[in-house]
Amino acid sequence: MAALPPDIQTWTNEAATGLLPKRSVLSAKDWGNAVHWAIYRRIVALKERFPTEFASLFPEITVDEDRRDSYDEDGPRYGQAGTSRLDVLEKVNTTTYCVYDVKTGTSGLTRKRLLEILEKLPKGVLVYIMEVRPFE
Q1: Closest CA relative to residue 38, chosen from 72, 70, 62, 8
Q2: pLDDT for 90 beyond 90
Q3: Comparing C-alpha atoms, which of 65, 121, 76, 132 is closest to residue 96?
Q4: Is the pLDDT of residue 1 over 80?
Q5: Taking CA 89 as the corner, what is the angle to CA 84 and CA 94, rounded to the nearest 5 degrees?
Q6: Degrees, nearest 5: CA angle 110-115-118
Q7: pLDDT in tens, 23-48
Q8: C-alpha R_g of the chain
Q9: End-to-end CA, the chain
Q10: What Å distances lie between residue 117 and 30, 38, 59, 67, CA to CA?
Q11: Which residue, 119, 88, 120, is CA-closest to 102?
Q12: Which residue, 119, 135, 134, 136, is CA-closest to 36?
């Protein structure tokens, strides 16, 4: 069976919907973190249940200046200094990656952030970077 395309938008919408009752009591940062971790848990569960179909999807992945990621045996740790965290990375194939950047606040992807992402991923790989917002 071929790999299933991820539905990050739907998963983001569902996470945000489930957390709406907490929206009024959490800070914007805490609510955004809760949405991100709900998406993370969803992807981890899918990877456990369907390891082949979701093998190319990596939630909350950390990448360093040497272009190693936290799934590499000698890769960086989550949140390690000098690293960048990607909300969701999909390694479509060896030459194409998709980065899904979940945004729950008013700020969007900046040129600086786009360049930071590109600088941390392998050279020569075509990278699509998509901003994902709840309910859009």
Answers
A1: 8
A2: yes
A3: 121
A4: no
A5: 110
A6: 130
A7: 999 999 999 999 999 999 999 999 99
A8: 15
A9: 30
A10: 23, 22, 15, 10
A11: 88
A12: 134
Would the pTM count as exceeding 0.85?
yes
Q: Which two tokens stand for residue 23?
A: 């929206």
Task: Give, in degrees to the nearest 5, the angle at Cα 61 between 57 and 63.
Answer: 125
> With the CA atoms of 80, 84, 90 and 94 taken in that order, what torsion angle do they form, in degrees rounded to the nearest 10?
-90
Whole-number Å distance between alpha carbons of 32 and 134? 10
The β-bridge relationship of strands 126-132 and 96-102 is parallel
Q: Give the three-class secondary structure for 79.
A: coil
Measure the CA–CA gap between 96 and 89, rounded to whole angstroms.
Answer: 11
Helices 28-49 and 8-23 cross at an angle (nearest 10°) of: 140
